[in-house]
Amino acid sequence: MRPQELGTMRLKVRSAVQHAVALCGAITLCVVVFQNFAPSARSEGRSAKALRSLRLSQGWPDRAPRSLGGDYELSVGVEANLIPDEAKKEEEEEERRRQALTQVATATTRPQTQLEDIFITVKTTRGFHRTRLHLLLQTWFQLAPKQTWFFTDVEDEEYNRKTGGHLINTNCSASHNRRALCCKMAAEYDAFLHSNKRWWCHFDDDNYVNVPQLVTTLADYDPLYDWYLGKPSIRAPLEIINRDNVSQRISFWFATGGAGFCISKSLALKMMPIAGGGKFISVGEKIRLPDDVTMGYIIEHLLKKSLTVVDEFHSHLEPMRFINTDTLARQVSFSYSQYGSEMNVLPIDGLDTRLDPTRLLSLHCQLFPHVSYCST
Ligand code: UDP
Ligand code: MN
To answer: Of the candidates 75, 109, 143, which is a domain's last residue?
Structure first.
């Protein structure tokens, strides 16, 4: 190669190297500028990613993100207004938030509900103390004697003693009419408000409550949020005439009282202005419907909170023989009834039907075989 050609070649190589360096510099600058001047987009991306991976790893059902709403939305909103100089500080702040988010998520998916958090009320009446109430005292009451209270319509020293002082005379009338039933439900609700517990669960005196499963079921829901858990006995929402405007119809779901239902403290507190201090009775009077329907009206129609259906609650409005007996331990409540000569009871083996016509003793023995009368 001639010296002249060599010189030209050197110039070309130098120029190419200079261009390459300039290009690299420009790319680096772009990266630095992007990193420093776009912290909000990056942080938002990470928050969303963190949330997504939390959801995936914890297998959250649909309802859970709602529980995070406040924290999550607040953090996204604040990030959007940050100035670049604070990027580092924000990085640390975001880490702290992420840790807090994880704690909230853990607490939300498993609120650590225990039996002590539940206030169980049972509606009964003077004519059923020796029969239905007695059966409850022999069975599931033994597993929750401190948490369970009976609401009746008479003083009964004997059964007050047998229930450990948990028999409350509501002074409501002893009949099956709407007013009497709403009167007792009002007393149950007001007692819960005074109890300082996280959950209120109502049952009828012909319900068997599977206490450990009740606790397990409630543990899936956070009582700091609004929950109305139970099971309807109709296939479509109930439609009634709006008494404030008779040309209008309103429709809502309600949980059948005879299957039992549970209400979180958060929701019970929201019901207070409408139903507290005995006002529940006036609402029942106004719509002229039974106590469980009145409950649905208040929660679904007036407060606009939806019933969450829990299939494991069972009233005698459904045929007990359809309950799969392999799943007894996973059900929350059961019932029994008699229509004419036909019994609607669980199809389970155990004690003689003359000794145990309702099958509740046999059910109790299947769930808790160590109970003394089960081995005879
Ligand atoms: N009940 C009552 N007063 C009465 C009759 C019944 O408080 O005069 C209560 C009863 O103890 C039960 C609930 O109301 O907890 C439902 O009664 P029942 O099971 O007899 O009738 P259902 O409505 O289930 O057909
Ligand atoms: Mn009943």
So the answer is: 109
Please work out whether the CB of residue 128 comes within 6 Å of at least one atom of ligand 1.
Answer: yes
- Residues 150, 168: contact at Cβ < 8 Å? yes
Question: Is 162 domain-assigned?
Answer: yes
pLDDT for 375 equals 86
Protein residue with its CA nearest to atom 5 in ligand 1: 176
Q: What is the pLDDT of residues 169-182, one digit of tens each?
A: 999 999 999 999 99
Q: Does residue 176 share a domain with residue 57?
A: no
Dig out the tokens for 182 from the structure.
């709403």
Read off the pTM: 0.74
Report which DSSP code applies to 174: S
User: What is the CA(188)–ligand 1 centre distance, in A?
Assistant: 15
Give the total number of structural domains in the chain. 2
Question: Longest Cα pair distance anywhere in the chain, in angstroms?
Answer: 123
Nearest CA to ligand 1 atom 25: 258
pLDDT digits (tens, 9 = 90+) for 97-121: 655 555 555 555 556 899 999 999 9
Mutate to test the pocket of ligand 1, among 176, 281, 360 (most ligand atoms within 8 A of CB): 176
Helix (H) or strand (E) holding 319: none
- Write out the residue range of the structural domain in which residue 252 sits: 117-375
